[in-house]
Amino acid sequence: MEDDAPARHILLVDDDVELSAMLREYLESEGFRVEAVSNGADGVARALSGEFDAVVLDVMLPRLSGIEALRRIRQATEVPVLMLTAKGDQVDRVVGLELGADDYVAKPYYPRELVARLRAVLRRQAPAAAPRGAMLQLGDLAVRVAERRASWQGVPIEVTATEFNMLVTLLRAGDDVQTKDDLSLGALGRPRQSYDRSVDVHISNLRLKLESASAGCVGIETVRGIGYRLRSAA
Predict the structure, then answer these.
(1) Contact between 49 and 28 (Cβ < 8 Å)
(2) Are residues 95 and 141 in the same domain?
(3) What is the C-alpha separation between 167 and 183, in angstroms, rounded?
(4) Is residue 3 in some structural domain?
(5) CB-side neighbour CA atoms (13 Å) of 145
(6) Residues whose CB is less than 8 angstroms from the CB of residue 99 and which lie 6 or more positions away in sequence, other chains included
């Protein structure tokens, strides 16, 4: 992290007090500011305050589950969310991604791994290195890269930071098929792991939003055994 850059403010939502204290100390040693809460209801209230750059959210929480907390957060804000899931629990991971989580880390984890995933999530929401006003288009689909805005016929399309990066990666590829490995590196900022469905779930969410916004005029084609590319009905 640059010395003159403001510390990124992280909300940690986990009812394991001992683990939270350890993780908070580690994150602060890495240059983050951290606030920790121990239940889902307080996590939602704080996440919606607009004070945080990202949320680290455990699935297993008292008062309100992490999944329900994520659902309520996504109803009101696109703040990046990194889910903490049980090792081997594919259901919680997929549900979390379907509800708009940007990524996940399975418990138990190394703090260094979590920090790497967290920084990758934060990079996705950073303004792109492109001239202000630079735009990618496919028919009436327009994406202003530096401003991180997507629209169809001038009407904004609400997408998460990860979905936006997926869209930019696909648009820049043109007619070329993007493999899941390409999309994981380009949009998630990390190599794809075996049996990792993150790319598929983010693409599925993005496909639904594009087809809904464009009434089916723009979509994402699955090229079986290879990957994905944007298609236009025009």
Answers:
(1) no
(2) no
(3) 10
(4) no
(5) 17
(6) 67, 70, 71, 74
Domain carrying residue 205: 135-232
Cβ of 60: how many Cβ atoms within 10 Å? 17
- Dihedral class, residue 179 (left if φ above 0, else alpha if ψ from -120 to 50, else beta): beta
CB 14 within 8 A of CB 59: no
Q: What's the pLDDT tens digit per position in 48-85?
A: 999 999 999 999 999 999 999 999 999 998 899 999 98
> Per-residue pLDDT tens for 125-134?
765 554 445 7
What is the maximal distance between C-alpha atoms in the chain? 57
Structural domains in the chain (count): 2
Residue 217 backbone phi and psi in degrees, to 5: -75, -25
Residue 1 in tokens: 């992290």
pTM of the model: 0.76
- Paired sense of beta strands 54-58 and 9-13, if any: parallel
Domain assignment of residue 161, yes or no: yes
Tell me what pLDDT residue 4 has: 53
Confirm whether 130 is domain-assigned. no
**Could you tell me how far CA 66 lies from the centroid of its own chain?**
16
Contact 183, 197 (CB under 8 A): no
Q: Are residues 161 and 108 in the same domain?
A: no
As a whole number, the mean pLDDT across the chain is 89
Give the residue among 165, 149, 171 at the shortest CA–CA distance from 229. 171
